Amino acid sequence: MTRSLSIGPALTALAALVSLSLAACGSAAPAPHKAPHKTSRKALPLAWKSTARNPYLPGDLLIADRANNRLLIVNPQKQIVWQYPNPGEKTNFPFVGPDDAFFTSNYREIITNEESSNTIAILNMAKRKIVWTYGHFSNGPGSSAPGYLYTPDDAFLLPSGIVTVADIHNQRILFISRKTRQIVKQYGINNYSVHNPPTSFAAPNGDFPGPNGSMLVTEIDGSYVDLLSAQGKLLWSVHVHFPHANYNYPSDANFTPDGNIIVADYANPGEILKISPQGKILWDYFFSSGPGMLDNPSLAYQLKNGMVVVNDDDNNRVIVIDPKTDQIVWQYGHTGVAGSAPGYLNDPDGTDFLPAGVVPPGVK
User: Rounded to 5 degrees, what are φ and ψ at 223?
Assistant: First the structure.
């Protein structure tokens, strides 16, 4: 998701995908950093080992708390069990405005994209150190020159060691070797905004991994979702129309466990759609007012139990929705109130799911 475009985002959740038949076929500068309330280190193991269960959230959530310049892991009991950086902790690379955050496949590292800073970073959790970066830190416009990015979104580290990212303003999807930091493949033409995948894209803001090495690309301008094969062939493209939208701003489309697609409308009021690969609407979440109304949600994804996780950015909350009742059944953050103390968020812009029983190094 990007903030600077006026035209109209979880890798671990994708591990639950069923096989999809391929044949069937977002920036203003982040708010000033506010030091979060200190959490007792002695309390963390007790919080982590809590035996209380939540029927709606069967694990923990990694949250990119963008305007607080931090990452959090929050358990179902709404306790912070890990954060980076800790209050007063110095980072070895500028960590400003994490826009998205995803666990790598072994849960030992986290990859983030700092959209407004035009950088990507990989954090080693055990070392509490950023061990890999790409891009040049900048508070202004980026570039399409070698080694540069311009509003990168949804960076993923694939098991092959390739980093993918949607480089929005540069109108391209990049495949970057972690080992060499060289671009090994590119979809799209630098600075050429036309919907014609995979030759060119119109403001691509999502590049979620799909089945069999495929990639699901979201295009803001024109409101398209495209599935590309592992070889880069266009398998299908669907135009996304949000029935209640003031304008269409599709953000971070990704696959559901049953092989359909879920996508957020980054708008106020916001909307969440679950659609088939043919574009048929299977579920539509929308409220024009009240506690269920979304304010610029940028990422929604569905868990194996059917619940839908949403980062509701400008409402300063992360929520879980039961699609059978359209009720919010879990929430972290205070609706419409920004903060950094426990229980508060400030522009949460990305989440990822940590399954129950998985304890990353450094979270003990």
Answer: 65, 65
